[in-house]
Specification:
Layout (H helix, E strand, L loop, with lengths): L1 H16 L1 H9 L17 H19 L5 H14 L6 H21 L3 H22 L6 H20 L5
Length: about 160
């Protein structure tokens, strides 16, 4: 049973890891942001994928009570899915902020002292990408979001495989 749960978590977290690639391949276009795929030719795709990944986070937080924060992160992803950024900008960005900032904080706060430096670096990379996109317009938002997703996914996969804490 444990092997099935691990496989389930790896497959579902891979959806988040490859989310931008999936969106590009299915819609045939690169949009200005990941959130903008809610307005693509396949508008159901983004909310479906985000909800699936959000449910994985919630499941992980329920099963592993010491990872209760994953329930909050999962609910925030579902919130992102349910609030397209052009229709509900305030709520969309609140949920997005909770997910990215919460993920960075969770990685850092609940890590061992041996791994904390690497997680701080990952958090700085995530925040820097968002700052470069939103405040300095140096990096396209699409790539900033992708950069932000990668450490979160790598961390989740590493935890699932018991390679990192």
């Amino acid at each position: 049973m444990l092997n099935r749960i691990i496989k389930f978590e790896l497959i579902t977290s891979s959806i988040l890891f490859f989310l931008p690639v999936i969106l590009i391949l299915v819609t045939g276009e690169v949009r200005s942001s990941i959130s903008n795929y809610a307005y693509s030719s396949q508008p159901q795709l983004l909310p479906t994928l985000l909800t699936a990944v959000g449910l994985l986070f919630i499941y992980n937080g329920v099963v592993n009570r010491d990872k209760w924060y994953n329930i909050v992160l999962g609910l925030s992803l579902i919130g992102v899915a349910l609030t397209p950024h052009l229709d509900f900008p305030l709520w969309h960005y609140i949920f997005t902020g909770i997910f990215f900032v919460g993920s960075a904080l969770a990685m850092i706060i609940w890590s061992s002292k041996e791994q904390r430096l690497w997680k701080i670096i990952a958090g700085v990379i995530m925040v820097s990408a968002i700052i470069l996109a939103f405040f300095f317009h140096i990096l396209p938002v699409f790539y900033a979001e992708w950069i932000g997703i990668l450490p979160i996914t790598i961390h989740f996969i590493g935890e699932t495989l018991n390679k990192i804490d």
